[in-house]
Specification:
alpha+beta, about 270 residues, single chain, elongated, about 10% strand, five-stranded antiparallel β-sheet, about 45% helix
């Protein structure tokens, strides 16, 4: 996806996003309730879209807020969506909500990441993930959690089902790249694919017949911790940075993991929640 909006027309960007979404001109025209002829004129540059039309088409194409601003600039309009650092005072209520979610999830691990998967915040229960990381530079801020997870000097050697978890993370990253075309994430995906795959005999392990999700299975001391996870995002963000923030919460997939996490919380001086 082109990032230099001033060097490409709004129509070209709309056509590029439409192609990325695998929509025909007719499909998009019908979704936007405009004529295919008018859309064709917009994409070819024969008609200049209004500000409202740019935002309307961006909505139909599910274009992220950051890229909507780029599209507006390419059409000759000012950006509609603010972009503030997470430390900005106006985002304090949202960041307080993030901390409430992270801390309220203990004794189970949870972390918040930005659009490039850099660690923004985490709760105290994240300790088992950070243990025994051989490559100290991976823990130097900004900590990229995907690189930390899959790098051979990071958490990867302790991930029991590395091949399956690696495929899961790379699949998520590819979906994100398909949605945004972010060049930083594209380069991150290329880098991560060069790391060891964890495959034994060239084939992934078969999926258990009764499995409901791919768990993360992490060796810790003399135990194997098993997690399932969920992703939380803000529902109606109007700020670019906030729209790109995500919280990943890990839950114990078995009673052994629950017991270990509760014990570790007690050892830290915390009180496990019922």
């Amino acid at each position: 996806m082109t990032t230099a909006s001033a060097q490409i027309s709004a129509g070209s960007l709309i056509r590029e996003w439409r192609t990325r979404r695998r929509m025909s001109q007719l499909d998009l025209a019908m979704e936007a309730e405009i004529s295919q002829r008018h859309l064709s004129f917009v994409e070819s540059g024969r008609a200049a879209p209004s500000r409202d039309m740019v935002l309307h088409l961006a909505e139909q194409l599910s274009i992220p807020l950051r890229q909507r601003n780029q599209l507006l600039l390419a059409a000759g309009f000012a950006p509609s969506f603010s972009e503030r650092p997470l430390t900005d005072a106006s985002l304090a209520p949202a960041m307080a909500a993030v901390e409430i979610v992270l801390n309220g999830h203990e004794p189970f691990p949870a972390l918040a990441v930005d659009r490039h998967w850099n660690l923004v915040s985490a709760n105290a229960a994240i300790g088992p993930f950070m243990a025994d990381v051989a490559e100290a530079s991976l823990l130097t801020p900004p900590v990229n959690v995907l690189r930390l997870s899959l790098h051979p000097g990071g958490i990867a050697p302790r991930i029991v089902n590395l091949a399956e978890w690696r495929a899961h993370l790379l699949g998520r990253l590819k979906q994100q790249n398909d949605a945004t075309g972010d060049p930083v994430l594209l380069e991150l995906e290329r880098e991560l694919r060069t790391y060891p795959s964890g495959l034994k005999g060239g084939r992934p392990a078969p999926v258990e017949p009764n499995a409901i999700v791919h768990p993360l299975r992490l060796a810790h001391s003399d135990a194997v911790l098993s997690f399932i996870s969920t992703i939380t995002v803000f529902g109606t963000p109007l700020d670019v940075t906030l729209s790109e923030l995500a919280i990943e919460s890990f839950f114990p997939a078995d009673e052994q993991t629950r017991a270990v996490l509760e014990r570790l919380t007690k050892e830290r001086g915390g009180t496990p929640k019922p």
